[in-house]
């Protein structure tokens, strides 16, 4: 029996998201294998490789790009390094899965998209939640008209890690802050479900002197066509939540755990229509694995990525405007 061809991955860095979620997801997927990991500290790379059963460990990111046996790279580096290493990886002929947010600005994101197009490689932003089948179910319910016309969306994502010293999320020049770290999910989800771009944004932020003046809390309003407002809040200094509510003229969709979907817990959501509330059962899957298989099918089978890199640049445009709105305390039109 012939073995299934797999996409061979190199990992740039040993960030927690890589070790705890993305690498295990790739290893559990159908069409991927992780063959190498790099760190600026070779010992750290080797320890991670040994722990996760990865064949090769490198002491530099350049070594990953020079390895001709690697097809694709995953970039979980701090946000300010996304542009540089995406472009360098593209020039080395590697396909790229880059952590969210794709960049620090729309301009940077567009440069990355262009560099990958010029090199003929695929680029995807690592919004794993979009690959979970429940979002297809949610979109189908909206399209069916069961909850009527969408009147509004409310999204939350918060946790409290304010006491975490040395966290890269607390470095302003590195693209730190709650908007870039988790507010991007709410923006991404709103654009996904409404299938349009916002016309204006207004955000109030809590910028903390204790955390290099990054936004530790941000509450926002995105204005869409048809008088639809999307409200959201994101925080790294508040109690934990991650929820999504879609309010329709005739019903409501509630997603209790909107962006975090663990295989060992329920990812079900609720629909209220006709005066009755029902629970929609959702298959328990590893959305990190599905994210990897989407890239693998694009590279190995010539299929289109589910989400084009231009979508990531569009999300970056909104995200950048939200941060500017919070900093300037003003409404920003797009």
TrEMBL record:
Keyword Protease attached: no
Where does the Gfo/Idh/MocA-like oxidoreductase N-terminal domain lie? 7-124
Presence of the UniProt keyword Oxidoreductase in the record: yes
User: Which terms are listed as keywords in the entry?
Assistant: Oxidoreductase
Please list the residue ranges annotated as the GFO/IDH/MocA-like oxidoreductase domain: 135-254
Question: To which protein family does this belong?
Answer: Belongs to the Gfo/Idh/MocA family.
Listed name of the protein: Deoxyfructose oxidoreductase
């Amino acid at each position: 029996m012939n073995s299934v061809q797999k996409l061979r991955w190199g990992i740039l860095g040993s960030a927690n998201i890589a070790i705890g979620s993305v690498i295990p997801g790739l290893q559990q997927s159908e069409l991927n294998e992780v063959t190498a990991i790099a760190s600026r500290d070779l010992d750290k790379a080797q320890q991670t490789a040994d722990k996760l059963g990865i064949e090769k460990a490198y002491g530099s990111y350049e070594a990953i790009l020079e390895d001709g046996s690697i097809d694709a790279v995953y970039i979980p580096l701090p946000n300010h390094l996304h542009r540089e290493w995406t472009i360098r990886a593209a020039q080395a002929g590697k396909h790229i899965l880059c952590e969210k947010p794709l960049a620090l600005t729309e301009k940077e994101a567009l440069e990355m998209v262009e560099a990958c197009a010029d090199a003929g490689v695929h680029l995807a932003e690592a919004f794993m939640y979009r690959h979970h089948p429940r979002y297809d179910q949610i979109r189908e319910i909206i399209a069916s008209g069961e909850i009527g016309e969408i009147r509004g969306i409310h999204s939350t994502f918060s946790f409290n890690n304010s006491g975490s010293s040395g966290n890269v999320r607390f470095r302003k020049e590195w693209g730190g802050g709650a908007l870039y770290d988790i507010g991007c999910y709410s923006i991404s989800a709103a654009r996904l479900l409404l299938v349009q771009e916002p016309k204006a944004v207004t955000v109030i932020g809590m910028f903390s002197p204790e955390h290099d003046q990054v936004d530790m809390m941000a509450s926002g309003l995105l204005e869409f066509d048809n008088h639809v407002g999307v409200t959201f809040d994101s925080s790294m200094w508040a109690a934990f939540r991650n929820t999504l509510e879609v309010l329709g003229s005739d019903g409501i969709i509630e997603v209790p755990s909107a962006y975090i979907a663990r295989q060992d817990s329920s990812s079900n959501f609720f629909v209220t229509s006709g005066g009755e509330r029902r629970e929609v059962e959702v298959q328990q899957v590893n959305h990190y694995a599905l994210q990897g298989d989407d890239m693998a099918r694009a590279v190995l089978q010539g299929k289109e990525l589910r989400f084009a890199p231009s979508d990531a640049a569009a999300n970056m445009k909104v995200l950048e405007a939200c941060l500017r709105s919070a900093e300037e305390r003003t409404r920003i039109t797009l």
